[in-house]
Specification:
The complex is a heterodimer. By secondary structure, chain A is mainly alpha-helical. Chain A has one domain: MetI-like (MetI-like fold), CATH 1.10.3720. Chain A is built from 13 helices and no strands. The longest helix of chain A has 32 residues. The two termini of chain A are 43 Å apart. The two termini of chain B are 19 Å apart. Chain B has two domains: 38 residues, no CATH class; 203 residues, MetI-like fold (Orthogonal Bundle), CATH 1.10.3720.10. Chain B is built from 16 helices and four strands. Chain B has a two-stranded antiparallel ribbon with strand order 1-2. Chain B has a two-stranded antiparallel ribbon with strand order 3-4. By secondary structure, chain B is mainly alpha-helical. The chains are: A mainly alpha, B mainly alpha. Chains A and B meet through helix 1, helix 2, helix 4, helix 5 and helix 6 of A and helix 1, helix 6, helix 7, helix 8 and helix 9 of B.
Chain lengths: 299, 318
């Protein structure tokens, strides 16, 4: 009966309006076309330039140089330093976010007065513009009158100009912004752990550590890894915070190098090649994580 | 947690609550500091030790919106007395407000703020409109290679902005679209489109198919069913997606820095560019920052029920 009714309605609807197929195409194709024209086509365009010595700032004839840009970039120790700095930043910043964020989630995962309000307040930093956050953290870090040095009694310690410390200073700001993100996801994971597991553990007189490592951690792990994927991708791409906060070579991450090469030194061809190298790294990290994620899910 | 019974548990709970409160205060301190600096007299903004208690004033906001120059000689008393309160505050600081004829000359800030608003609102509208339709298509119709297409849509979002910006800059230069609103709107729409498709697909999946099927049986066309049944059901999802897209576009920095420099420049590249050498007036920077962050803070509270969904592209629903 239901089948007949549906068939009938389908034919009637088709007779009076567009067919489902037409509607599907009208709804989906513009989006795909838009993304191809404004995301994929530009990449194909720059792939061509990556094999040339094109400089957008001058009118010199463009020469095809083959793989020279790629070869020179991969042999350039400075580019490797940019990648090392980026990796360092990713580890410090994502590591910090996981520790602070997951810790906060463990603390918050109980009956707390004004819990909703506290959670929302903690989420404020990550909703803000990274450029503006970087700017006002510069004010907090100021060596002569910054509140951070005053609160910690550090005198006139210059966080952002000390080449050994600048990267960590930027990472602290990033942790401030994004630890709440890890907290939010961890809280969702923690609240999904079935209560009866804890009750069973309590009956068996399991210790706190045992309960944590055998029940809490394995059940929260998948969602925690999702959080780590998202943050690693974003931290790898970081541009705004380190660009605004510090001009130190020790904070020159790969996005900043790419920006300088393309829009300050105007090495358009070479920067297109570097953009492709970065693209491949981004895809590779995504792949590793997605595979790991699937493995965790299977368990 | 399980019912708290043992005294040891109760003590742990107390400690946890105190720790949460302290950490929350530490997290909020930077925001409080920037907000309070926006209302400080200039001399107190960079005082050592830092000033916590002070008489708040709105002079930084007057400075934010006006063009000013240093006074070469003290202002004449009758001019001072005739001036409105906000202009007196500027005179008190040893400066005067620039005027052309009778009208006050505005600083570039309101312009940049307006640019941010134009670009964010337009791109949000486009991204959410297209995203809602596409999400419905993916949610309701059979599509060959659906998962691959959805992954493709998401992957356009994973590209680092500078990577996309290099070819886009070259193309915009050819067609004369650098430093235009349209140029930024296109980039932000593309950026938010994948986000809005993913988020809206989650919301669409939650609307029971039976609603439309009943409408189709009642003689609605598929289009009528979509507009009269599905869209009203999806209102909350659309609103949340729109607010998220707005915040993302409002906050964006790298594209704006590369593609605009004056006419279409938005606030994020403009505000940091105001920090010059030693003479920076941080109260004005703080005032600009405060106004810029205010809408986002309000929206965060409006969105609080949807934050988890939004920040994970709808991957985690709750």
């Amino acid at each position: 009966m239901a089948v007949i009714a549906r068939l009938e309605s389908d034919t009637r609807a088709a007779a009076r309006g567009w067919s489902d197929l037409t509607i599907r195409n009208i709804f989906i194709l513009p989006t795909l076309a838009f993304l191809i024209v404004f995301n994929i086509f530009p990449l194909i365009y720059s792939l061509g330039y990556s094999f040339t010595d094109f400089r957008a700032s001058v009118n010199d004839p463009v020469n095809f140089v083959g793989l020279q840009n790629y070869r020179e970039l991969l042999n350039d120790p400075n580019i490797w330093r940019n990648f090392t700095v980026t990796a360092q930043y990713v580890i410090v910043s994502v590591g910090g976010q996981v520790i602070v964020g997951f810790g906060l989630a463990l603390l918050l995962n109980r009956k707390i007065p004004f819990k909703g309000l506290i959670t929302t307040l903690l989420l404020l930093p990550m909703m803000m513009s990274m450029a503006v956050v970087g700017l006002f953290w510069k004010l907090l870090y100021d060596p002569s009158w910054g509140i951070i040095n005053y609160a910690l009694g550090l005198g006139s310690f210059d966080w952002l100009s000390d080449p050994d410390v600048a990267l960590y200073a930027v990472a602290i700001t990033d942790i401030w912004m994004w630890a709440p993100f890890v907290m939010l996801l961890s809280l969702a994971g923690l609240s999904a752990v079935p209560q009866h597991l804890y009750e069973a553990a309590a009956i068996d007189r399991a210790g706190t550590w045992y309960t944590f490592t055998r029940i809490t951690l394995p059940l929260v792990a998948p969602i925690l890894i999702i959080a780590i994927i998202f943050r690693t991708m974003e931290a790898f791409k970081s541009f705004d915070l380190p660009f605004i906060m510090s001009g130190q070579p020790t904070t020159e991450m790969i996005s900043i190098r790419l920006y300088k090469m393309a829009f300050q030194e105007w090495q358009t061809g070479r920067s297109s090649a570097l953009a492709y190298i970065v693209l491949i790294v981004v895809l590779a990290i995504t792949n590793i994580y997605v595979k790991y994620l699937n493995k965790v899910k299977e368990r | 947690m399980a019912a708290v019974t043992s005294p040891a548990r109760r003590v742990t709970n107390r400690i946890a609550i105190v720790a949460v409160l302290i950490i929350t205060l530490i997290f909020l301190a930077p925001i409080y500091w920037i907000a309070s600096t926006a209302f400080k007299p200039r001399a107190l903004a960079t005082s050592v030790p830092p000033t916590v208690l002070f008489q708040p004033e709105v002079t930084p906001f007057v400075k934010l919106f006006t063009k000013r120059v240093q006074l070469r000689k003290p202002v004449e008393p009758e001019v001072y007395d005739a001036a409105p309160w906000w202009e007196k505050a500027i005179y008190d600081g040893g400066e005067r407000v620039l005027r052309v004829g009778d009208s006050v000359q505005l600083s570039p800030y309101p312009d940049r703020f307006l640019n941010s608003l134009i670009v964010a609102v337009t791109s949000t509208f486009l991204a959410v409109a297209m995203g809602t339709l596409t999400a419905y298509g993916f949610s309701r119709f059979r599509i060959a290679g659906e998962n691959d297409l959805l992954f493709f849509i998401l992957s356009t979002r994973m590209l680092p902005p500078v990577v996309v910006a290099i070819p886009m800059f070259l193309m915009y230069r050819v067609v004369g679209m650098t430093d235009t609103h349209l140029g930024l709107i296109i980039l932000y729409t593309a950026f938010n489109l994948s986000f809005s498709v993913w988020l809206m697909k989650g919301f669409m999946d939650e609307i029971p198919k039976e609603y439309e099927e009943a409408a189709l049986v009642d003689g609605y066309t598929r289009m009528q069913a979509f507009f009269k049944i599905v869209l009203p059901e999806a209102t909350t999802g659309i609103a949340a997606t729109a607010v998220f897209s707005f915040i993302i576009a409002w906050n964006e920095y790298a594209f704006a820095l590369i593609m605009t420099n004056r006419r279409a420049q938005t606030a994020p590249p403009f505000i940091p560019a105001q920090v010059g050498s030693g003479l920076t007036d941080w109260t004005v920077i703080a005032a600009g920052t405060f106004l810029f962050l205010l809408p986002v803070a309000i929206f965060t509270f409006a969105l609080r029920g949807h934050l988890l969904r939004g920040v994970t592209f709808g991957a985690i629903r709750k």
